[in-house]
């Protein structure tokens, strides 16, 4: 290859796969075997315990101060968010302190992200709360579970929350061991956006009773948001003015300061920790005795130090396993997405499967100490990174431990309405995702439908069922896109080996672009089933083959007018009532089929986007190729992956009819071969080549 300015010139022979293999011998690489040695043991230890890899490189002089500042700021926010989000989980606020500590200490050893702040996450807390209120409702007897005997309502709820968190962690651990971290790829940004927006609305509605100071039981299940709003409006005359005013003041101040942080983040050395306002609100509540003077509900008695570990309840696990699985997926998807952002920014790698292991063990360990589901929150992680945090050492070992456990009693006078206001303010980012809808409507209607379906289903059916419906809607759109092909005409750009839609360009080559050529793009993925798309149903197969050949299928008629040989769209009706299942084109055809003498000689299949073939697709491809060969159409396959070729050999794909010589490394090689084989272009209108490109769209 000779570069010349912005041009390049390549002089090489015309290759088929056979001739290429003759001139360029392929190296047979040895496969890795399962054996244990010192290096593999070290690598396995570093993979399982990422702390081994970075702790030895910890730069005390440059990182220590930043970690201390980050630990103080992020630890305070984590503690206060833990208190607030425990209300979403229908638990006493004190148990949010455990969620701010125990999962984080395990993630410190097992996690691969250096900036992720592990702790309570509002959507997971809400999903835990749905299970808690279902098994231990506010206004009725608890579920018939053996382990509930002798426990207070609070203890029953803590047992339920810890048990569902344990099984959630178990799901994450199993997925990590099975190396299925790629599962988050099936949750598109559109689906996650619709789901989290619906969750934000759920959270907002659930916090109205705390902001307004109302007292009514929580509701869960389908249409829970409707029933909750009904309770709010039916009891709104009993609003506690002190709670309402306090909430409005807190929300206004927090929103103003957060807006300042966003607008002047480039000028501020660190974001203003506005969550400290809760400490001020706690002091004001204590000084003016809000609880007795204004009947304000406060946090109340906090947990005193550590409590002994507990085992999960097997009956609760059976009752909540269905809800725990989507919790495991959502928790990991959110955490992995946030971790990936900061790993790219700070140039280090994260391992999705190791993250699943880390969160699985963290949640199982935390559940044993009465914490509820943990993931991360973008706001906490942003604070940790922006305040100079480099690792999780100081954050975890020092500044979450003391505020969370030992000094929790100082927050007992804090009004719950303040926590509710903080929760609502932190929903701003998720609620603003509504702004994506005009963009989606304008640019991608399919994604718009996925967003709306996921949002509506999650809003009215609940988050667990809504996520399932959203996944179903997304898969349905993928199937629809796959099953409905789009067609275009490819042309060779003059003087190049590039092929583009002939309608989009004028500079096309007459030598390589036959006037009647048609390119059919089948929207198939890696496991394209040729038997369906080109072989079955039979009507589709006949329609594609006959119309591409210029054939007209009709019943015998006395009409002697000239045959219409023009190419028509594939959607035109054709009468197949007299066509046999197998047509031998070398024998006399049925009387109701007329075959105009049109010279069609070649079919090219582009395999550039095919990454694997299953057995069904392989059999269908083989049968289809033989059908084309039977009607004397040469078939060529181009840009086939070497591993696909290996599988074709292993599965005895080749025989006396289908040979390896039909495979070419590029589309241009195949087209040049076709020109050499059919040099007579005296009547170009009778020459026809079909290029079928199988692509993942």
UniProtKB/TrEMBL annotation:
Domain annotation STAS: ranges: 603-674
Name listed for the protein in its UniProt record: Solute carrier family 26 member 3
One GO term describing the cellular component: membrane
Recorded GO MF terms: secondary active sulfate transmembrane transporter activity
Organism: Cyprinus carpio (Common carp)
Annotated SUPFAM superfamilies: SpoIIaa-like
Residue ranges crossing the lipid bilayer per the database entry: 64-89, 95-111, 118-137, 157-178, 190-212, 232-256, 268-288, 324-344, 448-473
Membrane topology value: Multi-pass membrane protein
Subcellular location: Membrane
Keyword field: Membrane, Transmembrane, Transmembrane helix
